[in-house]
Amino acid sequence: MNPNERGPPPFPPGGFPMPPMAGFPGGPPPGFIPPPIMPPGPPMAPPFGMPPPGFGFPPGPNPVVPEIPKDSGKPPPVENDKSNGSDESKEKKVEWTEHKSPDGRTYYYNTVTKKSYWDKPDELKSPAERKLSQCPWKEYKSDSGKVYYHNVVTKESRWTIPKVLEELKAKIEEDETDKEKPEEARSTTPALPAEQNSATIPMPTSAAEVTKSTTPPPITNTKSALDQAMAATLAAISVATPPPRADEDSNSNLSIPSRTATPDPKISYKDKKEMAEAFRNLLKDKDIPSNASWEQAVKLIVNDPRYPQLKHFSDKKQVFNAYKTQRRKEEAEEQRLRAKKAKEDLEHFLMTTDKMHSTMRYYRCQETFGHLDVWKNVHDSDRREIYEDCVFNLAKREKEEGKARKKRNMKQLATILDSMTQIDHRTTWQEAQQMLLDNPNFVNDADLLGMDKEDALIVFEDHIRELEKEEEEEKEKEKKRRKRQQRKNRDAFGMLLNELHEEGKLTSMSLWVELYPIISADLRFSAMLGQSGSTPLDLFKFYVEDLKSRFHDERKIIKEILKEKGFEVEVSTTFEEFATVVCEDRRSATLDAGNVKLTYNALLEKAESREKERVKEDQRRQRKVESAFRSLLKDYDVDYTTDWSEIRDKIQGEEAFRTLSIEADRLRVFKEYQQEIEEACSHHHTRSKKAKKNKKNKKRSRSRSPTPLSPRTLRFLASLLPDLSTKE
């Protein structure tokens, strides 16, 4: 593939596995020529009179289909002023062919350069695809199928679509919509009377537009729905107006007498589109309803001078039907809006009137508000739904107001109790009630007088608890001072442990027994004795555990130091050498000596394991080489009488001889091989007899061998030995 082609991002966001790469693994490599199953030859020629695949008529006015002479045996060529200008682009498109790789992915082959590419070439891209290819943000899919976006410039990945790409896609869709509107308008051409067959009729510019002609134009929000429907109808009948006939010209000069002496002003239109627009305005001005028949509508519009301007009945009927359809939609929408407005007015009325409350029944509302228009304008089923919603909202509002009132009363009562100095922690609730009745702030507040007794008791209990807390504060001060001193003693003991750690005496491998003589001699240890809470031993254990918890992080730092220094721990590496290399780095100042030792032990174990594996691998390789050398000796029919110097000259050119590079190993293997051959020859005839004899002797010796003693029996006999020696 072309190295300049961009591939997918290195990875999707959030750690998802990256999608298939655009490189050649799994697909054709750079310069790949498709195999015979995917011939890269030129594409099939399109049918006569049709553009090649991917090509259409250029934008602009619709091509005109000229009249076909009756005697002509060939179809007339389609006129297009810009068709010759695209020959060069067509040739470039023909150079590219599309194929499928064995794994199902699509790639593109250039028949001129003989190269294959994963990405779609610019010559085959649509205008929308070209615009998207210029954006730095590209769309990909993760292995799970989730879409994410990657910026090929900043290398940034994200799950949400970037604003730049979103705006670009929206602009492309808007351009395509604007481009399709005139095509759809042209494609809805109705059947015309026979007298207009000689007029120029717009034809669809491509097969795609023929398909579009069977569907109505889309309705957008830029105009009213009625205007859009009429615009589609006008576009459908926008054909060239035929020249007037002679008899029509002669009749047009005749004037129709009217009820008044003043003749109607002469109305003229350029084309049939304006005539249809005038007829639509006539229907709209007369406010023709959607359920009116054609005969009823004609009675209302026949005397208008705009009525006869649209000559043919089929055109008038078509505009009338389109108007009725849209008028029906508008009337339904108006009815819906009126019903919605009536519901909103009723809901607002019920929520704001003073006569309505959350416990009021529906029949009571019917009796109270049934004579009002705001109630009668809504259907009964809708009224019930609105009533239920209002009752729910009123109950919610009343509940919130009750909570706010309760909160205010409790806060106000607490303020009054705080201001009454005669109340102390020994005052009872009965005494407090009498004191409150003598307080003017309490008596003059109507809300407080109507306050719930339970809420008032809760406030009083909270106030008594505060007074009791203040009474006990003095007792707590001494206790707090004692706790503060104990905390200072613990902090001082912690500083002692820090000093021992900085001096290297306390590590993650230290024991309390080892450091007790040093710790017990310090006054900070003596100050800890006798106080509650953590003991000196507990603090020592916590400190050591904290050092051990840092082991994994410090081991990473030590490995980074060794990697930067290029130092590797071998079997022969001593701890002094290891510590010297680590201490040369300034990061070692924060390391614990015990963790350094533990890291050294772990790395040394790995080195020993690697050494064992290496020895095993060498032994395995040596056995393989010796086995090949034995096979070589066997191929040359070496026996126990063959001389080494004689056979050496014959096999020194063999690969197995050179692989076993040490001469002593060659000679050793040679002698071992001769010894095996000699033993095989000497025992060839007597093997069966000796085997039977050995088997018989082994069975006999097994039957005569004593039963081994258990460990318990051996210990018992050992305990008797001193007694036996004493008796002797």
TrEMBL record:
Pfam families recorded: FF, FF_PRPF40A, WW
Coiled-coil region(s): 320-349, 453-490
Biased composition (Basic residues): 683-703
Compositional bias per record (Pro residues), positions renumbered to this chain: 1-66
Keyword annotations from UniProtKB, A to Z: Coiled coil, mRNA processing, mRNA splicing, Nucleus, Repeat
Comp. bias (Low complexity): 225-236
Localization terms from the record: Nucleus
InterPro entries from the UniProt entry: FF_domain, FF_domain_sf, Prp40-like, WW_dom, WW_dom_sf
Native source organism of the sequence: Nezara viridula (Southern green stink bug)
Domain WW: 96-123, 136-164
Protein name: Uncharacterized protein
Main location as per UniProt: nucleus
Transmembrane segments: none
Annotated ranges, domain FF: 272-326, 403-466, 486-546, 622-676
GO-annotated biological processes: mRNA cis splicing, via spliceosome
Biased composition (Basic and acidic residues): 68-103, 172-186
PANTHER family the UniProt entry points to: PRE-MRNA-PROCESSING PROTEIN PRP40, PRP40 PRE-MRNA PROCESSING FACTOR 40 HOMOLOG A (YEAST)
GO molecular function (one): RNA binding
Composition skew (Polar residues), residue ranges: 187-200, 251-261
Gene Ontology annotations for the cellular component aspect, listed alphabetically: U1 snRNP; U2-type prespliceosome
SUPFAM superfamilies: FF domain, WW domain
